[in-house]
Every structure is written in C-alpha cells, then in structure tokens.
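Fill-in record for tRNA-specific adenosine deaminase.
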Amino acid sequence: MENHQVHIEQGEEFAVAPLGAGEEPSSAAAVGGASCASAGPAPGAAESAPLARTPKAEARRLARLARKQEAEEAQQAQDEAFMRLALEEARLAAQAGEVPIGAVVVHQPRDRATGKPTAEAQVIARGHNQCEALKDASAHAEFSAMREAEQALDNWRLSDCTIYVTLEPCVMCAGLMQRSRVSRCVYGAADPKGGALGSLFAIHQDQRLNHRFQVTPGVLEEECQALLRRFFQTRR
C-alpha cells in the first residue's frame, strides 16, 4: 500500500506525491504544514483586512450609492421648493406688520409596509404669523397651518404630513407636531432663544414621549434669516 503525504489547511485536503516503500518524507514535506501556517496571515488580520469584492458585488454597491445620492438630491430639491412657498407666506406676514414667519403643510401618503410614497406630495394648508391681527398668542404660522391641515384631511392625525416653516418651531408648535403625529418638520432658520427642535429642546426625539418625528434644519437658511433680520432692523 502506498503511503501518501497529506497537508490539511483550513478544512481542505491537498494530496502530494506518493512516497515509496520505506522512504522518509523530505524535510520540506514534513514541515509543510508548519511552513504554510507561518506564511499565513497573522492572527486578527482577517478581521482587519477588507474583503475583496467581486466585480458584480462592486457594481451593485455603486448602483446603491448612486440611487441613494439621486434620492437625496431629489428630496433636497423638493424641500427647497416647498420652503419657498413658506417664504411667500412669511413675506405676507411682514407686509401685515407681523413677524415674518411662514409655513406650509405637505401631505404625501405612504405605504405602511415599504414606506414608499403612494401619491404625489401636495400642499394642503398654508399659514403665516397673525398674532397681532388676531390678538392671539397661538396664531403662529405653523400652528395655524396645522389646524387648517386637520380640517382639510378631516383628521387630527397628520401622520403623512411634513411641516415646512421658515423659523424653528417653539415649544407650543413643536408640541402640536408631536400630538398631531407629524412625520417630519423642515425648518429654515434656527431659533437659539426659543427653538424646540434642537436649539433649546428636542421634542421631536424625546424618548419619554409616545411619538417622535424627523427634523431637517437649515433649508434655505440664509433667505429665512435675511427676511427676519430686515424686519427687525426696520423696528429699531
């Protein structure tokens, strides 16, 4: 019966040339396993070294990145378009002598399983500050717009709605967003003295509350800030 020198490495068997009767394995063959072990990667190297991707896997990765970037750019363009509508409302407030803050509510139903839109985004409500005109401290732009949106949908839940407002909402308005179950708020200028969506408070992500929503700050921030700055400069 022929003897075979066998080298086992990582669960695979590699057969080498058969040995003749009484023949001793060569020193190279005898230490083959040790040589291979010493030539292998150092312990822990497999974890730190990135796995090489196949051409197909790399193509899929690049395609995912391209789709993600395309979606982000489309979302940014949409956010800016709706914020410009909110700026139009803010200018109406300034013309009436009110603090120039404007808001719009955009409704876009989504599939609950996939999260994908099932219809085009549509403005269902608009609002601007009317505190002075109505002698009402609650007549903030986004507060009024959300109440109008509830009437338009005949539902107090605004779970498929995004609120666009030129200034970061206060505690009152952020609280209504939380209570109305809005899905997202997009604002232009931050309010370091009264903002409740990141500046002073973070109502949108407070774990103690039963609803949390997304916030996108800084959309057309400079335009929103400039409108407020001009208004207050004329009052000094």
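KEY FINDING: The radius of gyration is 32 Å.
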